[in-house]
């Protein structure tokens, strides 16, 4: 059995830190907490779990803080979490089993990161991250903002999931944007990844024209990670939509086909444009394609399962209804309901199609 150091950086996390540490403290062998300037009770909570609580002067550099935390670890492997992350009970069991059975030749273990779920428990937005890494490999974090862990070697993909469960309060929503703006003003040379995440910050702050500018700069480099490239196309489509330019939004979705085979999200986006135009046959083609394009379990990029599950089936129900193919419309509405069994719109559709297909039943 391998040993594990949990390494975290925190600041003003008193609302969520106890919840995070409680779900993992009984599994790891060591907890290292690096505080970057808390003014609340964060450090007191941390000390109730570990005596290894350290201060790090904040220098607008997340990688520097994480690398310092990693340097303090002493066990075989390092697990990293953010304070608003949790392991649900089933995933705690999976992590314990992983710890008991992990081959020591493993350099890194990826875990699912569930960022968003719907009211039915379906994961609607997720990705994979390298979460558990061999300490002796001395992997380094890179990037002042939206930092990433540079990992190579023998990597395995686990079924352990970390669930993001943020608090209601965002302590500093403008922090990342301020850091990027300062770096830009200082003449810092941005990598393609920096340009992508800088664009994301502008989008999150609803400055869609600035976001478009930096997504375009990112794509012009022609050297970004393919998953970021596709995400940039998606977010360009969102920005143009917010600015009321439906054609530019559509073109951003089609642009994704230059870079990779069709993905479910873009099939749905393209399908919706044809549905809006009343070209239901073409819309059916794209939505049907979306239903058969589930990404592999070890996919490292962002995933929104809605785009290959209930959403295209619901839209297929709409399309087939518009062209009078009610049996097909009903079949797809039922498939959509299998993912969202209490969805009011789909339940209303069920009644509508029942009346369409069996108009005389209510007269009995």
Automatic annotation (TrEMBL):
Please name the source species: Paenibacillus lactis
Tell me the PANTHER family matching this sequence.
GLYCOSYLTRANSFERASE, POLY-BETA-1,6-N-ACETYL-D-GLUCOSAMINE SYNTHASE
Q: Which InterPro entries match?
A: Glyco_trans_2-like, Nucleotide-diphossugar_trans, TPR-like_helical_dom_sf
Pfam families reported for this sequence: Glycos_transf_2
Tell me the domain of life: Bacteria
User: Mind telling me which Gene3D superfamilies this protein's record contains?
Assistant: Spore Coat Polysaccharide Biosynthesis Protein SpsA, Chain A, Tetratricopeptide repeat domain
According to the entry, every stretch annotated as the Glycosyltransferase 2-like domain falls at 5-96
Q: Which residues form the signal peptide?
A: none
Which protein are we looking at?
Answer: Glycosyltransferase involved in cell wall biosynthesis
């Amino acid at each position: 059995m391998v040993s594990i150091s949990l390494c975290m950086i925190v600041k003003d996390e008193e609302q969520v830190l106890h919840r995070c540490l409680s779900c993992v403290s009984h599994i790891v062998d060591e907890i290292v907490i690096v505080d970057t300037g808390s003014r609340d009770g964060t450090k007191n909570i941390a000390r109730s779990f570990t005596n290894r609580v350290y201060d790090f002067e904040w220098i607008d550099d997340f990688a520097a803080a994480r690398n310092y935390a990693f340097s303090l670890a002493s066990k075989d492997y390092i697990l990293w979490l953010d304070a608003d992350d949790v392991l649900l009970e089933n995933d705690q069991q999976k992590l314990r089993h992983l710890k008991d059975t992990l081959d020591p030749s493993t350099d890194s273990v990826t875990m699912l990161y569930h960022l968003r779920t719907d009211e039915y428990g379906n994961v609607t937005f997720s990705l994979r991250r390298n979460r558990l890494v061999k300490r002796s490999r001395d992997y380094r974090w890179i990037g002042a903002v939206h930092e990433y862990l540079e990992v190579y070697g023998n990597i395995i993909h686990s079924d352990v999931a970390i669930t993001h469960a943020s608090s209601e309060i965002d302590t500093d929503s403008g922090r990342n944007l301020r850091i990027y703006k300062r770096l830009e003003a200082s003449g810092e040379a941005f990598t393609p990844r920096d340009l992508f995440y800088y664009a994301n910050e502008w989008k999150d702050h609803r400055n869609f024209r600035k976001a478009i500018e930096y997504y375009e700069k990112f794509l012009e480099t022609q050297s970004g990670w393919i998953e970021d490239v596709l995400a940039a196309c998606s977010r360009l489509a969102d920005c143009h939509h917010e600015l009321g330019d439906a054609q530019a939004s559509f073109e951003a979705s089609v642009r994704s086909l230059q870079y990779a085979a069709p993905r479910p999200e873009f099939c749905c986006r393209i399908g919706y444009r044809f549905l809006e135009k009343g070209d239901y046959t073409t819309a059916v083609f794209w939505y049907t394609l979306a239903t058969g394009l589930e990404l592999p379990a070890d996919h490292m990029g962002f995933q929104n399962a809605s785009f290959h599950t209930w959403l295209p089936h619901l839209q297929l129900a709409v399309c087939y209804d518009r062209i009078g193919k009610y049996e097909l419309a009903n079949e797809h509405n039922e498939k959509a309901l299998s993912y969202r069994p209490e969805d009011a719109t789909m339940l209303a559709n069920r009644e509508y199609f029942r009346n369409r297909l069996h108009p005389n039943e209510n007269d009995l």
